[in-house]
Each structure stands twice: as C-alpha cells, then as structure tokens.
Design brief:
Distance between the termini of chain A: 12 Å
Structural class of chain B: mainly alpha
Shape of chain A: globular
Number of helices of chain A: 3
Order of helices and strands of chain A: EHEHEEH
Oligomer: heterodimer
Radius of gyration of chain A: 11 Å
Helix content of chain B: 55-70%
Number of strands of chain A: 4
Order of helices and strands of chain B: HHHHHHHHHHHHHHHH
Structural class of chain A: alpha+beta
CATH superfamily of chain A: Glutaredoxin
Helix content of chain A: 40-55%
Number of domains of chain B: 1
Strand content of chain B: under 5%
Number of strands of chain B: 0
Chain lengths: 77, 362
C-alpha cells in the first residue's frame, strides 16, 4: 500500500504528512508514506487544492488536513 | 519554469498549520445545537451590561474617565467580535461544504467572459480557497480553458471578500458598511478580471502552464451527510477562530487605547474626507501588509471615531486583504512579472476608486 501526501511544503501539508505517518503506525499497516512536492506531479493527480491525500494512486481527499483517525479509516477499507 | 518557493509563507494566512485535533463530541445532536444557539443569543444580548458591570462594578473604575472608557470598550468588543466570528465562521464552513474548487471549475468552464467574471467573483466568495493553493488552482482553471480574466476575477474575490473581514466590519461598523464592503469588493473583482481579460495578457503566463495536463482528481464520493457538514463547520471554527483570535484581541486592545486616549477630531486633518491623498496613502500602506484584517479593523474603527473617513478606511482594509506580497511570490511561479504588475495595478486602482467614491458620496 502506498500513501502519498501531495503538497508544496506549506505548514498544513506537513501536518497532513505527520497525521498520515501516525495513522500508518497506529494501524500497523504495511504501507509506505511518501511526500509529493513537485507541482506538475501533484497536478497529474488532478488536485487543485493542497494538501491532498492519495492511497495507491487514488486521491481520497484534497484541501483538508485529515485527522489520523480519518486516515486510518481510509487505510482499512 | 518559474522559481519554486519552498517553505511556509508566514503565520497570518490560512497556510499556517491547523491547531491540533481535539476529541469530537458526537455530531448530529440537534437539541445540543439549539441549546448552544440559545445560550449564544442570551450571552450576546447582555455583553454590554456585563462589560459595564466588570469595568465599573468589579474593577471600580470611574465612569467617564479615560481608563474606564478604554477598559469597557475592550471588555465589550473582544467577546462580541469573537462570538460573531464563531457563529459566522461556523455557518460559512457549512456553506462551503457545498462547494469545491473542482465544482467551481466545472461551472466556470466554457463561460463567456462577462458572465464568467460575475460568476467567478461570486463563486470566489463561497469556494474554499487558501492562497497557498493559488498555483494548482490557477493551473486547473487554465487547463479547463477558463479565460484568464475570469480566473483573475476568482483570484481577486476569494481573498478580498472573506468572512473574517465581513464579521469584523459588521461587528464594529454595522451592516451597512459590511454590505458596502461586500458589494464593492465583488465589483472590483468583476471589473478587474474583465479588464485583465481585455488586455490579452495570455503570453505573460509562464509557457509551461499551457503544457500542464491534469489527472482525473478525487473520486466523487457522493454528497456529504448532514453530520459531515456540521463537522466541516466545527473544523472551520477551530481553524479560523483558532488562528485569528490573537489578532482580534491585539487589534481591539490598540483600538481601546485610541478610543480612550486619542482626542476627538485628531484624525480628521490627515485621514479625513478633505485629504484626497489619504486614500492612495492607505492603499500604498495596505498592499504589502498581509492578512491581518482581524487586527486592523478594530484600529481603523477607533480611528474613524476620531474623524478618519470611511472611504479611506475601506480602501485600506481592501488593499490589506486583496493584495499581499506572499501571494504575489506564489503566483510568480505561473505568471511573468508584467502580468503580476498589471494585476496589482488594476486591483489597486479599483480599490482607490472605491475609497474616493465613498469619501465623496458619504
């Protein structure tokens, strides 16, 4: 499983990255968390508002900082 | 390709880290919501009495003295503005849960310019937007074939007409001034976008922008439930009120000092109606300032009490919020300097006219 945090490096993006890492740790899921900072790469996901979260290449949320609990729910689906 | 800016762009804007998540109370409790609304209303109606009692009863300050006037002003305005802010931000958070940038993009795609400018400005108010997302949003709009001028109408309206400024203006000046601000803000956004469209500046957008192809985006997850929308409202309160309250308190503290200690009419000579240069000076001062509307409104209100003119104050407010240096730096990635300069010049001119017209008419 691949969890990607899309964002150009603002404070909200860092918060989302931290939340994603926490969620993966707590869920004990075999997932790697990756940060995508390149604007062109972010646009390939079709995201217009950062930060966004993608799991296995699919965008799950954009423009919001999801809580670790919300991310955990997405991980277990 | 444009220069990439790394790192944060400062604490005052929406790009700051949100406050830590707190435990959520179970959502969807309508009785609880009604109870909260009733308590809000009861407390709000008695704020003046409470402030008076605290100032002259509990603190035993002398009625009519300078210190008393300042303290009463502070004790009344701080809770009043924060309560209004909480209520409105909650409501706006719920309204915004009905709009997404993706949806706005779909609505605007394929619109003619004039209609598009009007729609874009209106959508700019209700679409959730943060200047740190200005670049992906701009690219998304361009990719959908939305005209440059229409995109600019959105980019001007989104930061200019914001709920924090409206609440503060409503709380400290009344609904007329807040309404004027909303109407003229929209008008400036529509007109500025239309003019930028007429100037045909497409070649001053960085070339790589036109090569961008966007992916599919988030999968449509269906409409949100009522509980989720309420949660978005609470999220907005935590994020916005959590961020701006120190500015509100600081601004009102300075305002309270002016209220009690600055003599009547002092401001009339250099911020009054007769000083034509006051408006351009206010705009020039406001442009480099960033997003501190929350702290500035109370100060401006106190200055106006001492004779400053409304048009000058409005122009100052608008230039602080609508045009900011960090946003220009962010937009530099996709726009060439000439287009940024034109953007600033057109919007600043619009604000200038608003200031002069109000000083002349009111």
């Amino acid at each position: 499983m691949k969890v990607q945090v899309l964002g150009t490096g603002c404070a909200k993006c860092k918060q989302l990255l931290a939340n994603a890492e926490q969620a993966v740790r707590e869920a004990g899921a075999p997932a790697e968390v990756e940060k995508v900072e390149d604007i062109q790469a972010i646009l390939k996901f079709g995201v217009m508002t950062t930060p966004a979260l993608a799991i296995d290449g699919k965008v799950k949320a954009s423009g919001r900082v999801l809580s670790p609990q919300e991310i955990r729910k997405l991980l277990t689906v | 390709m444009g220069r990439f800016v790394k790192g944060d762009i400062g604490g005052a804007g929406c790009c700051g880290a949100p406050p830590a998540e707190r435990k959520r109370v179970g959502a969807g409790h309508w009785p609880l919501l009604l109870l909260a609304a009733a308590a809000w209303w009861l407390l709000y109606r008695h704020l003046a009495g409470i402030a008076g009692f605290l100032t002259y009863g509990a603190l035993r300050l002398t009625r009519g003295a300078r210190l008393g006037a300042s303290v009463e002003f502070f004790l009344f305005e701080v809770p009043k503005v924060l309560m209004l802010l909480t209520l409105i931000v909650f409501g706006v958070g719920i309204i915004r849960s009905f709009f997404t940038p993706e949806r706005t993009r779909r609505i605007l795609a394929g619109r003619r310019e004039s209609v598009g400018n009007v729609l874009a400005a209106l959508l700019g108010v209700v679409t959730p937007f943060c200047s740190c997302s200005a670049v992906p949003l701009f690219l998304g709009f361009v990719e959908a074939g939305i005209p440059l001028g229409v995109t600019f109408s959105f980019l001007v309206a989104a930061p200019m007409v914001n709920e924090v400024a409206l609440v503060l203006l409503f709380g400290m000046f009344g609904w007329k001034v807040a309404g004027l601000y909303l109407a003229t803000g929209l008008l400036v956004a529509m007109a500025a976008g239309w003019i930028i469209g007429r100037l045909h500046l497409e070649r001053h957008v960085e070339e790589w922008v036109y090569q961008v192809r966007m992916g599919a985006g988030a999968e449509e997850s269906g409409p949100l439930t009522r509980t989720e929308r309420l949660a978005r409202g609470r999220e907005a309160v935590r994020e916005v009120v959590g961020r701006v309250w120190p500015y509100v308190v600081a601004g009102i503290a300075v305002g309270a000092g002016i209220h009690g200690y600055v003599p009547e009419g002092l401001m009339a000579s250099f911020m009054g109606k007769s000083a034509w240069w006051a408006v351009p000076a206010a705009v020039a001062l406001g442009v480099p300032m960033y997003s501190n509307a929350a702290g500035i409104v109370p100060v401006v209100q106190a200055l106006m009490e001492k004779g400053a003119a409304l048009g000058t104050a409005l122009a100052f407010m608008m230039s602080v919020i609508a045009l900011s240096l960090p946003e220009m730096i962010i937009l530099r990635r996709v726009l060439k300097p000439r287009l940024i300069a034109t953007f600033v010049a057109v919007v600043a001119t619009g604000i200038l006219l608003v200031g002069w017209v109000f000083n002349a008419v009111l």
